[in-house]
Amino acid sequence: MADIIRSVRGMNDILPDVTPYWQAVETTLNDVLRSYGYQEIRFPIVEKTALFCRSIGEVTDIVEKEMYSFDDRNGESLTLRPEGTAGCVRAAMQNGLLNQTQRLWYQGPMFRYERPQKGRYRQFHQIGVEAYGFKGPDIDAEMILMTARLWKQLGLRGLKLQINSLGSTEARLLYKAKLIDYFELHRDQLDEDSQRRLHSNPLRILDSKNPEMQALNDGAPMLLDHLDKESEQDFNALCEALDSVGLIYEINPRLVRGLDYYGKTVFEWVTEHLGSQGTVCAGGRYDGLVSQLGGKAATAIGFAIGLERLISLLEAMDALPKIETIDAYIVAVGDKAVREALLLAERLRDEVPGLKLITHCGGGNFKSQFKHADRSGARWSLILGDDEINNKVIGVKTMATGEQETVSWDVLANYLQS
Ligand code: ATP
Ligand code: MG
Fold first, then answer.
1. What φ, ψ does residue 411 adopt, rounded to 5°?
2. Closest CA to ligand 1's atom 16
3. Quick count: other Cβ atoms within 10 Å of Cβ 219?
4. Per-residue pLDDT tens for 52-61?
């Protein structure tokens, strides 16, 4: 027998027993986003490799070692998107959307060649949100409040908000020099990755997940102490806005984010309930990216939610959404009954909006059809045989109790609606 071809490592099937949770979560999130005036944008999963190199940054984990890049048949280097911001900016620029303010969202798969483990996959899914043309910090505050509302709407507790400011590009440059001086003094304590990044991207050292780097990082100078005036004012205004609605947050001066394009406000929502993959939502301001990609300068801020982690967290907190079950399952035995069942089912779907009704297909005796009805989780079985057809009635069995009664066809819709 031929070998069975299995899925790619780290790329998972999302099976029908869990897709209803995904759908319910996505619907809730989409509703909240729409309620703030965000509009959906769809852009390709594949982009030119240069787009990601230029936006995310050459010396980041993503570009250095996580991208799925390949040459197409013309020899052009393409990449499966590792995140959505770059493609969203590209699409907005290319289509002239940046001439005015925009509130946009998107969702879909992202691809990163990471070591697969719980909460970290090679294909994962994000809902991303971007706002263009707003200077802030009012939009920063609104966006963070919107994320808080997302969790509230999902009935999710257990997420903590962390915020920080990365300052202006100039302030960051000055700070980087200080940081390099500090790490130079402790060069022997830097791990391999950090040694490599010392001069190219010292901020990323602060983002290290290596516990042995913790103490060294704790002693490093803090970017928050080296902010430019405008960033400091904006950050204070953001904090005030969050305070004024009583949203609890923690200022985490080590929060630097893994991508190069961020500046000023950054934030993450984290949980202790998912082990080390605890960041469920992350984002920040990236005012420099549009001009860096060749467009006319436009301010920008956004965030992305990791849906796998969000759904795991809902599960861990026993807060998965209630999912709809099947209302009725039609059991029909005999040629005439099978024909009648199809017609009856169509009529019921017309008359009972939202009815979830399965018609047994594929034949079989009453016993085997009842097994299917049972497995479907339907509330009622609707039973059609020769006798029922002759009398224009149907047997209605309440699956939970086993009780059965006979209902005439013309009142069946009413019965199911009750
Ligand atoms: P991490 O620090 O966990 O690697 P990140 O900073 O690389 O995350 P972002 O690029 O900011 O993550 O992506 C936003 C969100 O997408 C993350 O907070 C997380 O919820 C989710 N995410 C990122 N990478 C993965 C992955 N490989 N598998 C599953 N979810 C992911
Ligand atoms: Mg990462």
1. -110, 5
2. 306
3. 10
4. 999 998 888 8
Q: Let me know if 144 is exposed, middle or buried by CB neighbors in 10 A (0-12, 13-18, 19+).
A: buried
Q: Is 125 in the pocket of ligand 1 (CB under 6 A)?
A: no
Model pLDDT for residues 99-136, shown as the tens digit of each residue: 999 999 999 999 999 999 999 999 999 999 999 999 98
CATH of 328-417, one of 3.40.50.800, 3.40.50.620, 3.30.1490.270, 3.40.50.10420: 3.40.50.800
Assess whether the C-beta atom of 280 lies below 6 angstroms from ligand 1.
Answer: yes
DSSP lists the bridge partners of residue 106 as 128
Ligand 1 nearest atom to the CA of residue 126, by list position: 16
Ligand nearest to the CA of 122: 1
Ligand nearest to the CA of 208: 1
Give the pTM: 0.93
Cα–Cα distance measured from residue 297 to residue 413, given in angstroms and rounded to the nearest whole number: 60
Which residue of 122, 124, 269 sits with most ligand 1 atoms within 8 Å of its CB, as the best mutation to test the pocket?
124
Cα–Cα distance, 373 to 261 (Å, whole number): 55
pLDDT grade for 1, boundaries at 50, 70 and 90: low
Check residue 64 and give left, alpha or beta (phi > 0: left; psi -120 to 50: alpha): alpha
Smallest CA-to-CA distance from 361 within 377, 376, 379, 348 is with 376
CA of 113 to the centre of ligand 2 (A): 10
State if residue 121 touches ligand 1 by the CB under 6 angstroms criterion. yes
Separation between Cα atoms, residue 44 and residue 18, nearest integer Å: 26
Name the residue ranges covered by the structural domains of the chain: 19-167+227-316, 328-417
Establish whether residue 274 lines the binding site of ligand 1, counting it when its CB lies within 6 angstroms of any ligand atom: no
The domain 19-167+227-316 is classified under which CATH number: 3.40.50.620, 3.30.930.10, 3.40.50.720, 1.10.3720.10? 3.30.930.10
CB 140 within 8 A of CB 200: no
**Tens of pLDDT along 128-183?**
999 999 998 999 999 999 999 999 999 999 899 999 999 999 999 899 999 999 99
Torsion, Cα 84 86 87 93, to 10 degrees, reads 140
Quote the CA–CA distance of 183 and 195 in Å, as a whole number. Answer: 9
Measured in angstroms, how far is the CA atom of residue 368 from the centroid of ligand 2?
Answer: 50
Mutate to test the pocket of ligand 1, among 309, 312, 313, 314 (most ligand atoms within 8 A of CB): 309
For residues 376 and 11, what is the distance between their CA atoms, to the nearest angstrom? 28
Atom 25 of ligand 1, nearest CA residue: 120
